[in-house]
Amino acid sequence: MSEIDAKAAAWAVALDAGELNAARRAELDAWMAEDRRHRGALLRAQAGLRLMDHGQVVSKMLPPPRRDVGKAAQVRSRWAWGVGLSTAAGLAAAAVLWSAPVSDFKTQVGEQRRVALQDGSVAMINTDSRLRVRLGGPERRITVRQGEAWFQVAKDHVHPFIVDAGPVHVRATGTAFSVRRLTGGAEVVVTEGRVVAWRDGQGGAPVAISAGQSAFVADSVVQVVRAKTARTEDVLAWRRGEIVFDGDTVASGVAEFNRYNERKIELADPEIGQRTIVGYFLIDQPEQFALAASRMTGGAVRQDGQRIVIENSQ
Amino acid sequence: MQLSPDATVDWVALHILPHEGFVRAWLMRVTRRSSEVDDIVQEAYCQIAELDTVSHIRSGKAYFLTTARSIMLQRLRRERVVRIETMTDVDALRLTDDEPSPEQVTGARRELERVLGLIATLPPICRQVIELRRIHGFSQKETARRLGVTESVVENNTIRGLRTILKALAEDAGEASTVEASSRRARESAHV
Fold first, then answer.
1. Is A111 left (phi over 0), alpha (psi -120 to 50) or beta?
2. Between chain A and chain B, how many beta carbons pairs sit less than 8 Å apart?
3. Most B CBs within 10 Å: which of A44, A61, A103, as the mutation test of the B interface?
4. Domains assigned to chain B
5. A59, B116: Cβ pair inside 8 Å?
6. CATH code (residue A273)
7. pTM attached to this predicted model
8. Which is more confidently placed, B55 or B94?
């Protein structure tokens, strides 16, 4: 085994165990920069680790081995290729079919998905998100690897329901709340009951968040957890396919719409982004939002197949 | 330096790694040099890691094979000795057909089972660590607590298991896959 592969395996395992500290991260960056082959080796090792964890699933998705390979080669049936195609559905889909305790869920941009979990809880997964669900252990464990999800947790005091988003953790027994993973932290919004949130490392003292409140739990030690009274129903309007603004900036509205649509909204002038906007919009109608924003600024909307540009009045 | 997104890692695990044995066997038949095979496969992973997205790729296996083939051709062209015959023959290989034949798909599963079967041959502590991850999805910290060992013991054993798998993937896949008759013809004339 090559030296590169050995190093790559160690990095893949370290990355999987959690966020690297600054020094280790710098070390990894240095290693990656040293030789362009290192990046490929790391990708291969990371995929190998996933295969080690989920290999049985992948294996089950592929057609069973045949003894009479020679004969099979002559009868090139279309059916066999059909099976091959259906195996291309993705690791996430595979895990769903798999009845074992670990399941992965994934949504595309613009997709929202409601998933009934085995313990009776419900997860509503927002756009462009990835979730790992582990039930059956002493704890019910959900990992928000990317994006956002809202949970209606089935009451079970013996098995706490813990959501991990990077170094941030949220613990509940029977409540409803959402967790969104963002760069540098996680946003928690509670709609029912009460949850406790904390993060790994120093200064990670748990903070209680109650119904109607939201909190941003930062990854870094510097920022503190704060709970604030939130327009929780507005923040979670995505569950009804809506986006609600109440004095939010146009820039944040653009960012919000762009989470859900492949056709991105752009601002011709960043100055437009500073204006604030109020209103209800449908998630899949970014044009309506663009129109409303342009009217407010007296500008115009120009659109083509790929993008919607809000222009200034000139 | 940017890390590959999770989606790419998943895709490589599902659509690339299970076919590595096949691609290696194919390269070995054409190049006949295992050091050459290692370099080409390494370069192929490099190119995959450099992709912004993999969502446009319909067949991972065909993509892997095509990438490996073009790397091989580039390398051949760089060798000033110009093995023209090899090149034309290699060009003639039927790789545009991205429908894997039944026996090729079958080979991937057998190969994967072979590789995963090696976990059973690992020392008990290593096996236990892997099973706790795999079956229960426990984190490194939880696994350490349950086994009553330090986190670094868990980490080292996970690395050990992973290295076994990576090594097995790179080993000769043996009968894992068969190639098209046309590539067999090419191979015969490539070594004149």
1. beta
2. 199
3. A44
4. 6-190 (1.10.10.10)
5. yes
6. 3.55.50.30
7. 0.48
8. B55
